Each structure stands twice: as C-alpha cells, then as structure tokens.
Amino acid sequence: xxxxxxxxxxxxxxxxxxxxxxxxxxxxxxxxxxxxxxxxxxxxxxxxxxxxxxxxxxxxxxxxxxxxxxxxxxxxxxxxxxxxxxxxxxxxxxxxxxxxxxxxxxxxxxxxxxxxxxxxxxxxxxxxxxxxxxxxxxxxxxxxxxxxxxxxxxxxxxxxxxxxxxxxxxxxxxxxxxxxxxxxxxxxxxxxxxxxxxxxxxxxxxxxxxxxxxxxxxxxxxxxxxx
Length: 227
Description:
This protein is mostly helical. 48% of the residues lie in helices and 4% in strands. The protein is built from 9 helices and 4 strands. The mean pLDDT is 85.
C-alpha cells in the first residue's frame, strides 16, 4: 500500500541504486532486502510524490482488489469482510477523489540536507502535520495562565513565532548557523543597508530582506467569539 500511495523520484532512486551496486557491491536480492528491512535509508535519499486523484485511486484499487479477499489468520475473516473495514475503504476512496491526499502541484515538500559519505543528497520531508506537534507543545507550555488578556497573548505569541521561525530557518532551510538566536531582523537589515554604501558586495548575502518579500494579506490576532 505504501508503494501505491507514494511514487519514487526516478532520478533519486537510480542514484541510490548505482551507489549500492557499484560502491557497496550489493546484488539485486540484497537491494530488495534493504528496501524491505531498511526503508528509512531510502526515505532520507529519495523524494516521493503522492499522485493526482485519478492515478492515486487507480493505484489504491489495484492493491485493494488484490488483497481484499485475503483471510486474516487471527480473526479468520477476510480483510475487508466486516462493515467497519468496508466503511474505512469507502472513506479512503472518498478522500482520495476529493483531492485530500494528493500533493499540491508545483509545490516542493523537500529541502536539501548535507550529502552522505557516498555523495548522495539527503532530503528533509515536510509532508504532513507531525512536525507541527513540537510547535503546539511549546505553545501550550508558553501559555499556561487562564487570566491572560487577548492583547498580552497576541504579543507573546507573535514574539514566540518570530523566534521559532528564525530557528527553523537555521535548522532546516539552509540559513547559516551564525543567525541562530538572532531575532532582531530589522536591526540586521538596517546594518546591511548602511554597509552597502561602503562595500562592493552586499553583506549578509544569505539573509533575505523583508523588503524583497510581498505581503500575502494574512493577519494574526485573537478572534472575538461574540462576533
């Protein structure tokens, strides 16, 4: 089912196979065993795509039709022989056809990490919401009181999100580590602007100025429950 829902990037996979065959001397059986028992190795080096709804439904139904009549050795029933299992199957199809699971076209779900010892590019995957759990936990720890005013909450959460996003830029998005813990972006941008009059090349070239970004029109605040 995993292979039906996710499609490998052919170029990434081929680079991995070449390394396993030529550098590590593995045969085809050993490679298949590695994909079965050490799949995480491939996850870090091969990007994957969740296809469009028609292709996703087709691939899913191929797996369903192949295994739906298999008898479970514990219950003695077919895998989809119960009303609950059939309901889950129909719900899954419904979500697939509504485009709830397919990747967004022209949107990248990966950022590059350091290459491994064999020269293979490793990737950090940002698909799903599991990575947000750390953010939610920190927010719960940050806001523990029950008598905080909306103005105070907006101020402290805004400050926290600024610091969080800055650290994430360093950890996963390639911003140099020297910017870790630097949360006054306006101060840095003022320095860049003033130094530009004396330097042939701009300082802090890794830093993307807020002046280079376009406002999305989004706003942050506390919703009034009475409205």
